[in-house]
Amino acid sequence: MKPSARNQLKGRITNILRGATTSHITIDVNSTLITSVMIGVD
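The chain above was modelled as a monomer; its predicted structure follows.
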């Protein structure tokens, strides 16, 4: 399955790395690590 905004993946967040303008979130889904990059400014 190709990840998209509509997919819901059941997993566990293993790491969050916050930067000045982006955050990198790592999710463990059935022993597969997926990294998502979010863009935003607080």
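The chain has a mean pLDDT of 88.
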